[in-house]
Amino acid sequence: MAVPDFQTMMLPFLRFLSDRQEHAYGELATLLAEQYRLSQDERAEMVPSGKQTRLINRVHWISTYFKKAQLVQTASRGTFRITARGLELLSRNPQKIDMKTLEEYPEYIAFRNQKNRKLEKSAGDHEPAQEVEWVESKTPDEILDGSYGTIRANLMSEILEKVKSCSPAFFERLVVELLVSMGYGGTLQDAGAALGRSGDGGIDGIIKEDRLGLDVIYLQAKRWENTVPGKEVREFAGALQWKRAKKGVFITTSDYSKSAREFAGSIDTKIILIDGTELAELMIDYNVGVSVSNTYEIKKIDSDYFVEE
Q: Is the pTM of this model over 0.85?
């Protein structure tokens, strides 16, 4: 099974603390992993940012919300314990604990209202009630990662629309610029040359593999809507043989047929196939055709700073 939703883990989390002892985040994560019989892969699953495991992320935010409701309190550096209020809640033998349960406590309500005021201020034309519900169903890290993923997916779609509307010559130059940005060759003038002339034997461009030009990579760039069939990749492979080339990159704005991918993987000549989705991702990652709109710094407590000698 996957790592459970963080609200699902709230009740067992608090029950583990009912011994009134101090517990660390890692210890609670291990206990929860054992209860839900998570595999090693599931325990190691990372949040999209890659900064933390999903399990530890859940434990962190449960403890944060519980602290706001004063169900737990910090005991010492990196540890916490249950409070009298937390024990009282468990004494009621609840069937579950979720964000609705925390609304019983004024301290949590104050925290939530403060958070929602900031959210509504930044939401613009969005309906506040919808935004609040979205927040309460996910951890803040999941919200941030999800928002980033949505923005990135929308940007990828916009990029492909723009690229498909450009001329073939512009697309060929774009492909060369992208590979230069990825570290192949030197400058645009030095490393890449868009050919795009009749009689080039199916080759749309060439680029040096490195700054010294020890080898070259031949390019084929197709601004297509339909799936690229195996025939096109076979013709590109033939053009590479005619050039006595060992390496080629075929880039399209669409996708490749199964036969095209199978053929590219079955021949000695190294041909890399890049489809429209991969092209858009590379353009974003290497800042080709895009610019930075906003930059956010996500900060955390520097625990070492608060250690008194």
A: no
